[in-house]
Write a structure and sequence with these properties.
Its EC number is 4.3.1.3. The protein has 21 helices and nine strands. The protein is mainly alpha-helical. The chain folds into two domains: 3-205, Orthogonal Bundle (Fumarase C, Chain B, domain 1), CATH 1.10.275.10; 213-321 and 356-517, Fumarase/aspartase (Central domain) (Fumarase C, Chain A, domain 2, Up-down Bundle). The strands form four sheets. Strands 4-6-7 form a three-stranded antiparallel beta sheet. Strand 8 and strand 9 form a beta hairpin. Helix 10 (207-237) packs antiparallel against helix 15 and helix 10 packs parallel to helix 18 (431-461).
């Protein structure tokens, strides 16, 4: 299957095979979503189970009772439609800035995927309507605050369920804010009047935090490769050695991510005239490079292995059917605690730690370029006329500010818990908060690495007439296409840093390097 076919091929839900890449395709690129071949049969079968319980004199949570600390009240049949409607309306209590469209689309996809497993007891019409809303590009307005990451991402999912009812605010496919009823009508979609259990099934999952985890993993996979590229260019520009990246040295410590990063750096530094200029041990008196150069594969490799661990957790969660109560495979309706976001929250926090450390070592390499005492013959701050020009002095300040912020964002959210619902929900994961801060950290890492690339590009060009490696030259050329990374008198720097950021974000840096090196890890 070609890349184009993969991009436009519909994502199938309800078959247990949803992947991280599928989430990204739907959330970011608008891929269509369709139900697996057996999804509706499973949904109808479990719905029959729920309807069989609706008239039972025995109370069943979410079917004939209130919710949370109010679960002790039995709700008569004539009030159950109002029960579901009231649940969604009251729980749509988010506050603060609007959450990004891609996050809401990921959240919607993941809830649809769980509904399509047939384990939640919703009606087929409810699932099909939710799917139609997603495919129409209608995105409910969801807010920054409201989820504790336990009993599901309640407030965010409730804002989406509200739209399913034709209430609340949404953005249409063009991004215009409007009433949900208006957007649904324009798309030819009928709102749903929720029946027993459906309100609970729509809001009781880890979908928001899981969606953000999937998006962060996709970003970090590309970023860690870009960080290897930047590190190799810094080693080259600072007259460091690639001897420490030899495969046999890394075989002595068989950490898989470390070996992959070292391989990337060897490929980047291959055939470098700058590196060849100081291979003679008699001419080069330096015994060892600083840690930020020599240990780059160990740090980036540890980040890689952490991303792999987070990916495994995400894949397990993508294969889950999370609701409470849940309809089991043998037809029982059972209360459970699978909505607790702890497993997801932990890896979200873990990723914020490694993102901060990747940024920290990147900033240290940039700082070495700017310090004439440590940059091996380059001008102070890589300035054209030091004193008249400040060069990249303040670009490093910008890096330092972001790294400092990332260290604060690395403080784990998952160790906190504030009890809720009159102590019925007395321990929560704060996974949504972990995901929100990770998104900010990933964006900052992208900007920090971009600044290192700008510094390395300028430093390498200042080594003329010696030339960088072919791979480094390709990256410099790619950055030059979108901004100015050449040495010279001071200029308005922010646009050049933003252009480099965009080149990291859209993968242009990796693409340029791989045009020379072949596939990087």
């Amino acid at each position: 299957m070609t890349h184009t076919q993969t991009l436009h091929h519909p994502v199938v839900v309800g078959d247990g095979r949803l992947s991280i890449d599928d989430v990204v395709r739907v959330a970011r690129h608008g891929a269509a979503v369709e139900l697996g071949p057996t999804a509706l049969d499973s949904v109808r079968a479990t719905r029959a189970t729920i309807e069989g319980l609706a008239e039972d004199t025995v109370a069943h949570y979410g079917v004939s009772t209130g919710f949370g600390a109010l679960a002790t009240r039995h709700i008569p049949t004539e009030l159950r439609t109002q029960l579901q409607r009231s649940l969604v309306r009251s729980h749509a209590a988010g506050a603060g800035p609007e959450v990004e469209r891609e996050v809401v689309r990921a959240l919607m996809l993941l809830r649809i995927n769980t509904l399509a497993t047939g384990r939640t007891g919703v009606r087929a019409v409810t699932l099909e309507t939710y799917l139609a809303i997603l495919n129409a590009g209608i995105t409910p307005v969801v807010h920054e605050y409201g989820s504790l990451g336990c009993s599901g991402d309640l407030a965010p999912l409730s804002h989406c369920a509200l739209a399913l009812m034709g209430e609340g605010l949404v953005r249409d496919d063009d991004g215009e804010v409007m009433e949900a009823a208006e957007a649904l009508s324009a798309a030819g979609i009928e709102p749903v009047e929720l029946a027993e259990k459906e309100g609970l099934a729509l809001i009781n999952g880890t979908d928001g935090m899981l969606g953000m985890l999937c998006l962060a993993i996709a970003d970090l996979r590309q970023l860690v490769t870009t960080a290897d590229i930047a590190a190799a260019m810094s080693v080259e520009g600072l007259l460091g050695t690639d001897d420490v990246f030899a495969a046999d040295l890394h075989d002595l410590r068989p950490q898989p991510g470390q070996a992959r990063s070292a391989e990337n750096m060897r490929k980047m530094l291959s055939h470098s005239p700058i590196r060849d200029s100081h291979r003679d041990p008699e001419a080069c008196t330096r015994v060892q490079d600083a840690y930020s150069l020599r240990c780059a594969p160990q740090v980036a490799g540890g980040a890689r292995d952490t991303i792999d661990h987070a990916s495994r957790v995400a894949e397990w969660e993508l294969a889950s059917a999370i609701d409470n109560p849940v309809v089991t495979l043998d037809g029982r309706v059972e209360s459970n605690g699978n909505f607790h976001g702890a497993p997801v929250a932990y890896v979200l926090d873990f990723l914020a730690i490694v993102a901060a450390d990747l940024a920290s070592i990147s900033e240290r390499r940039t700082d070495r370029f700017l310090d004439k005492a440590r940059n091996n013959g380059l001008p102070p701050f890589l300035a054209d006329d030091p004193g008249v020009d400040s060069g990249l002095m303040i670009a490093q300040y910008t890096q330092a500010a972001m790294v400092s912020e990332m260290k604060r964002l690395a403080v784990p959210a998952s160790v906190d818990s504030i009890p809720s619902s009159a102590m019925q929900e007395d321990h929560v994961s704060m996974g949504w908060s972990a995901a929100r801060k990770l998104r900010r950290s990933v964006d900052a890492l992208t900007r920090v690495v971009a600044i290192e690339l700008v510094a390395a590009s300028r430093g390498l060009q200042l080594r003329a007439p010696l030339q960088p490696s072919p791979a480094s030259s390709a990256v410099i050329a790619a950055l030059a296409e979108v901004g100015n990374v050449a040495p010279g008198p001071d200029r308005f720097l922010a646009p050049d840093l933003e252009a480099a950021y965009e080149a990291v974000l859209d993968g242009a840096v990796v693409t340029a390097a791989e045009a020379v090196t072949g596939r990087l890890n």
